[in-house]
Amino acid sequence: MMLLGICGSLRKASLNRALLNALCEVLPPDVQMALHGDLDLPIFNNDLDDPPGVLRLKAAIAAADGVVFSVPEYNYSIPGGLKNALDWVSRPPDRSPLRGKPIGMVGAASGMSGTIRAQTHLRQVLVYSDSPCLIQPEVLIPRARERFDADGRLTDPSTRVLLEKFGAAMAGFVRRCCG
Fold first, then answer.
1. Is this model's pTM higher than 0.85 or not?
2. For the structural domain made of 2-178, what CATH number should be given?
């Protein structure tokens, strides 16, 4: 099974990118995850043809069995760059690679609430593309700076266990959705 990991942060050293990397390390043996790192796209304009970056993102989503978004929380919601990318890939609605694609969400934040509001908003946005979302286990990592070292490696054992549970649940969810 092939998953696609998409980090909602444009920062190369983001905690959410580190969280996706840690998830890659604990996935079940029959599951692999490729990471898509470029959401630096022009502002969505339905009058324009898809630019090359959007075409690459759409192709990566279409090729994956499921998508895992690592969602930072900015101002109680998802980052503008992630929303912009979703606006691009959800059009046209009948040919969106997100349509019916199983989705999982993880998120890390420096605050105490993890990314609960951002993940709730992302689920709401994904209603448009009719993308089924894995609900449990939730991966809402609070105080994330305490769980990773300076090089972005996960050091917290409880977070690793949670990611293992999430990886197994995501694999089962994709099998149920696609089987």
1. yes
2. 3.40.50.360
